[in-house]
C-alpha cells in the first residue's frame, strides 16, 4: 500500500514538472530561474522525453512489479513529447526561402562572435555575400567591427558600445549602411545591464531606430539583470519604426507578459519575431555543437509593424568558424 502511494505521488510530481516545462506561461513563471533554462531548449527536452518514453515503456513490458508505475510515466512522457512537438511545429523547423531583394528592402545579419572568435575575413565575406544593410555583432570589439566593415567592401557606419574595453564579451558593434543616413548612439534611455545593447537612432529623424541587442544570459547571479534587459528591450519596441536584432539570450517562451498591452505571442512587445513569421522559430542558433532542431533559438531579428519579413535563415555552414553561435540573416520589406 505504501509503495502504491509513493508511486502515485511520484507520478503526480512528474506530471506537474512536465506541465511546467511544456507551458510555464500558464502559471506565469516563464521567467523564473530553472524554468527559463529548461524551456530554452524545447527540442533537446523533447528528445530526452522520447528516450524516457522508450525506456519506461520497455520496463513496463518486462516488469510486472513496475508495470503500472513505469507505464504511467511512459504515457506522461509521450503526452509531453506530443505537446512539445506541436509547439515546435507551429514555430517552424526551417524555411530558408528569400524574396528577390527590392528597393527599400533591408538585409539584417546577426552573429555573436564569442569575443572576435571567427577570422574577421570570414565575417566580412558573409556580410558582403549577403549584402547586409544592418549587422549586429555581440561580443565583438570595436577594432574587429571596423575591420569587418572595411573588409566587406560595403559602405558601413560603425557604432560600437563597450562596457569594458578589455573584455570583448562586454562589447557590441552595430554596422549600418550609410545609404540609410547617418546614425548615432543614443545612451539617454539607459541600456541593458552587464552586457551592452546598442540603441542607434537616425540623425535626420527618419528611418528605423536600430537596436543591437545583447541582454545578459539567464545564469545564476544574473537573473535580475536578464529580466531587466528583456524589459528594456521591450520598451524599445514600443516605437513605430524599430528593428531589433541580436543575441537575446531568450526564446519566444520568455516574452509573454513583458508588455501585456501588446502581447501577440509572436515576439517582444510591439516587435514581431522574424523567425516566427517565416517558419524558422524552432531552429536552434546556439550552441553550434548541437543539431539545429535540438539547440536554443536565442538569436533574433525583430521589427515593428512598419516592416514585414520576406526571408530568414539560420546559417549552419560556419559552425566550425570559431563562435558558439550560428549567424542569422533576415530580409525585411517596408509594410504596406
Beta content comes to 15-25%
CATH-assigned homologous superfamily of the largest domain: Endonuclease/exonuclease/phosphatase
Class of secondary structure makeup? alpha+beta
CATH topology of the largest domain: Deoxyribonuclease I, Chain A
Supply Rg.
Answer: 22 Å
H/E series, N to C? HHHHEHEHEEEEEHEEEHEEE
Mean pLDDT: 95
Strand arrangement in the largest pleated sheet: 5-6-7-8-11-10-9
Q: What is the CATH top level name of the largest domain?
A: Alpha Beta
Poorly predicted ranges = none
Largest sheet: 7 strands, mixed
Number of helices: 8
The best one-word shape is elongated
Tell me the count of domains: 2
CATH architecture of the largest domain: 4-Layer Sandwich
Helical amount: 25-40%
The span between the termini is: 67 Å
How would you describe the overall organization of this protein?
- Helix 5 packs across helix 6.
- This protein is an alpha+beta fold.
- A hairpin with a 6-residue loop joins strand 6 (198-202) and strand 7 (209-213).
- The N and C termini lie far apart (67 Å).
- The chain is elongated, with a radius of gyration of 22 Å.
- The protein has eight helices and 13 strands.
- A seven-stranded mixed β-sheet has the order 5-6-7-8-11-10-9.
- The protein has two domains: 2-91; 106-334, Deoxyribonuclease I, Chain A (4-Layer Sandwich), CATH 3.60.10.
- The model has no long low-confidence stretch (mean pLDDT 95).
Amino acid at each position: 500500500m505504501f509503495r502504491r502511494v509513493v508511486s502515485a505521488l511520484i507520478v503526480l510530481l512528474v506530471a506537474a514538472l512536465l506541465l511546467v516545462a511544456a507551458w510555464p506561461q500558464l502559471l506565469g513563471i516563464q521567467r523564473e530561474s530553472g524554468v527559463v533554462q529548461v524551456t530554452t531548449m524545447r527540442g533537446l527536452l523533447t528528445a530526452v522525453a522520447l528516450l524516457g518514453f522508450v525506456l519506461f515503456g520497455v520496463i513496463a513490458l518486462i516488469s510486472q512489479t513496475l508495470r503500472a508505475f513505469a507505464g504511467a510515466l511512459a504515457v506522461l512522457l509521450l503526452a509531453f513529447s506530443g505537446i512539445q512537438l506541436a509547439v515546435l511545429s507551429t514555430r517552424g523547423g526551417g524555411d530558408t526561402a528569400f524574396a528577390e531583394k527590392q528597393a527599400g528592402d533591408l538585409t539584417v545579419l546577426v552573429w555573436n562572435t564569442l569575443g572576435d572568435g571567427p577570422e574577421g575575413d570570414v565575417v566580412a565575406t558573409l556580410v558582403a555575400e549577403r549584402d547586409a544593410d544592418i549587422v549586429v555583432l555581440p561580443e565583438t570589439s570595436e577594432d574587429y567591427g571596423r575591420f569587418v566593415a572595411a573588409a566587406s567592401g560595403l559602405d558601413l557606419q560603425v557604432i560600437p558600445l563597450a562596457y569594458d574595453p578589455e573584455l570583448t564579451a562586454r562589447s557590441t558593434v552595430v554596422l549600418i549602411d550609410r545609404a540609410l543616413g547617418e546614425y548615432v548612439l543614443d545612451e539617454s534611455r539607459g541600456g541593458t545591464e552587464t552586457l551592452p545593447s546598442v540603441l542607434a537612432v537616425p540623425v535626420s529623424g527618419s528611418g528605423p531606430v536600430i537596436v543591437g541587442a545583447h541582454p545578459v544570459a539567464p545564469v545564476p547571479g544574473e537573473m535580475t539583470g536578464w529580466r531587466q534587459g528583456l524589459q528594456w528591450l521591450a520598451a524599445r519596441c514600443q516605437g513605430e519604426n524599430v528593428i531589433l536584432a541580436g543575441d537575446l539570450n531568450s526564446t519566444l517562451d520568455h516574452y509573454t507578459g513583458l508588455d501585456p498591452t501588446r502581447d501577440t505571442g509572436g515576439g517582444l512587445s510591439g516587435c514581431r519575431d522574424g523567425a516566427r513569421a517565416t517558419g524558422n522559430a524552432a531552429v536552434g542558433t546556439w550552441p553550434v555543437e548541437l543539431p539545429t532542431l535540438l539547440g536554443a533559438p536565442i538569436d533574433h531579428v525583430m521589427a515593428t509593424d512598419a516592416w514585414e519579413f520576406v526571408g530568414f535563415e539560420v546559417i549552419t555552414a560556419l559552425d566550425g568558424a570559431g563562435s558558439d553561435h550560428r549567424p542569422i540573416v533576415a530580409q525585411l520589406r517596408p509594410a504596406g
